[in-house]
TrEMBL record:
Belongs to the FAIM1 family. It holds the Pfam family FAIM1. Gene3D superfamilies: 2.40.128.180. Plays a role as an inducible effector molecule that mediates Fas resistance produced by surface Ig engagement in B cells. Keywords: Apoptosis, Cytoplasm. GO terms for biological process: apoptotic process; negative regulation of extrinsic apoptotic signaling pathway via death domain receptors. One of its GO terms (cellular component) is cytoplasm. The lineage of its organism: Eukaryota, Metazoa, Chordata, Craniata, Vertebrata. This is Fas apoptotic inhibitory molecule 1. It comes from the Eukaryota.
Amino acid sequence: LEKMTDLVAVWEVALSDGVHKIEFEHGTTSGKRVVYVDGKEEIRREWMFKLVGKETFTVGATKTKAAINIDAVSGFAYEYTLEINGKSLKKYMENRLKTTNTWILNLGGTDYRVVLEKDTMDVWCNGQKMETAGEFVEDGTETHFTVADHNCCIKAVSSGKRKEGIIHTLIVDNREVPEAVE
């Protein structure tokens, strides 16, 4: 089994539907290029005469656009950069920190990753988009949903400061869950 002998890069990408592993094989002698997403082969090209270039594919349930750029650095050295939605991985993740909130919680011995997309108010849990019910309350809004028979609520209240904007808090069974840093 010659699988993964030319592995040159591995990235972990946190999206709303989960953290995805992207692996890239580049055979600089054979010109082979293989892209794996979560262990599943997405692209395979054999005998590419051009060793530099770009491979594009999608990631996750949301079919997020991704691309691997292959650039020659010097001689036979190559640099591999991952882009998500047209941005470098670093820029994408920095932007994602502003547009999403993520919480990791354990209920009954099972880990759950809850993600709020602030622009759409969509809530994801372990790769599934959740059914939610929103309501206006005295100090802001509440978005209600259920995870494993537990009542969950994301409260959105104004911080009172323009730079901070709205503060989102996840409450599960009347207990506040601290936000995760990914």
